[in-house]
Amino acid sequence: MSGMQEGHSGDERPLALGLRVQGASRAQNDQLTQELQLFLQGRTEHVTLERQRDNPDSQDAGGLLLAVLAAPAVVEVAKSSAQALTELAKGIAAFIARRNLSVEICADGAARVAGRPEQVERIVHELLAARLNVRKAP
User: Fold this and answer.
1) Looking at residue 74, which CATH number applies to its domain?
2) For each successive 10 residues of the chain (138 residues), what is the average pLDDT?
């Protein structure tokens, strides 16, 4: 999202990305999701990270990591949404590069898998561009 310009879409729902690490087993996914959460904490301002269980009856902490930004109007006061998303995307890219992993990124009912670090920022932008009213700078 570097080189992006931001507008205001009028949609005040919080921006949220679901992140699911692609691993071999449920236990590995749970562990990798925890590692991703710890890795991103402190690297991403204005983003709240929380785990969610795929099955509410399961004992694990959850294989889905939600990255939630404050409502766009609130974030714009402190920092642009596009910049906060760029920080998040760079953190995700660094994590998957270090561990040679793929991560599923989902938002607003759509999902994409990033298998390479350089795909993460583009996918994050594609999934949330309509909500942010973001366009590439000329």
Assistant:
1) 3.30.70
2) 41 77 80 91 82 67 79 52 80 91 87 89 80 51
